Amino acid sequence: MLRIDVITLFPEMIEGAVTHGVLGQALKKDHLAISAHTPREFANDRHRTVDDRPFGGGDGMIMLAETLEKTLHKVQHKNSKIIYMSPQGKTLTDDLARTFSNEEHLVLICGRYGGIDQRIINSYVDEEVSIGDYVLSGGELGALVLIDAVARFIPGVLGHDESAHKDSFSAGLLEHPNFTRPRVYLEQEVPDVLLSGNHKVIEEWKSKVSALVTLQKRPDLFLEYIHQENLKYQALKKKKKKTPLVELKSFFMSLSDKDKQVLGLQDLTEEDFNV
Ligand code: ADE
User: Fold this and answer.
1) How far is the CA of 86 from the centre of ligand 1 (A)?
2) What's the pLDDT tens digit per position in 30-39?
3) pLDDT of 158-185, one tens digit each?
4) Taking CB atoms and a 6 Å cutoff, what residues make up the pocket around ligand 1?
5) Which of 39, 72, 73, 265 has the fewest CB atoms within 10 Å, i.e. the most exposed one?
6) What are the pLDDT digits (tens) for 106-130?
């Protein structure tokens, strides 16, 4: 079972957020365990000091090395992976989240104010992770995002074991649009194929729509996807007539205007396939 210990000045922020939804269920079912620890526990002075002004001046307060180190010693063991949440880190992706889900123990350090004393990073941290190119006022929200993304890859956490692998990004594609009842709403009608009951046809249709959505919204991801599909195509002994890109373009051309509209693909044109 994956254990995650979070080191933070605001343990309630973590403890409160993880009790809801999919994460809450995962904790109840012991698919993972999460605890939060505050360095304040190890502050011995009257004010329970955990931070101080930076040497050389500058904005913000820096979390003290000593109280952080003592908190680390409380939770660390030989198989711990220690992560510092920081805008300077490697950007979190689904691939990185999947890798972390295979660890035995993650320790997430959340900085506050001006950050933490660099010597803790030098001596303890295995990896710095950022959740995006923006600066948060602390690492807690980043840690929660990481925990959520990681938990989805733990077998049993989602209804279907494969669900996390079907979602956006797993095959390098964005997810196709989804619809539920009623069949017609806001004068828009759900594509007939989804009501056909033919699962094989539906799955093929969905994966093509995923590719089109990706082409429209994330051409950068689409290029990588089509490159992989071309490699598979070239490895085929018996070549199909159409290359993956030509096949996708034909599929797009075969969609009715009404279906393009309801799928949000009305602005995609033939020229967009010239990649
Ligand atoms: N702490 C402050 N900004 C952050 C970011 N972008 N990602 C992770 N932790 C952070």
Assistant:
1) 4
2) 999 999 999 9
3) 986 557 776 777 678 999 999 999 999 9
4) 85-87, 130-132, 134-136, 139, 142
5) 73
6) 999 999 879 999 999 999 999 999 9
The CATH T-level fold of domain 168-273 is: Trp Operon Repressor; Chain A (1.10.1270)
Whether domain 2-151 has CATH 3.40.1280.10: the reply is: yes
Q: Whose CA is nearest to atom 2 of ligand 1?
A: 136
Ligand 1, pocket-test mutation among 62, 131, 137, 144, most atoms within 8 A of CB: 131
Judge whether 259 and 203 are in contact, CB under 8 Å. Answer: no
pTM of the model: 0.92
For 157, other C-beta atoms within 10 Å of its C-beta total: 22
Q: Where in the chain is the domain with CATH 3.40.1280.10?
A: 2-151
CB atoms within 10 A of CB 33: 13
Structure tokens at 52: 């101080």
Residue ranges, CATH 1.10.1270.20, the chain:
168-273
Cα 152 to averaged position of ligand 1 atoms, centre (Å): 21
- Strand order from edge to edge, sheet including 127-130: 32-37, 2-7, 105-110, 80-91, 127-130
DSSP class of residue 126 equals S
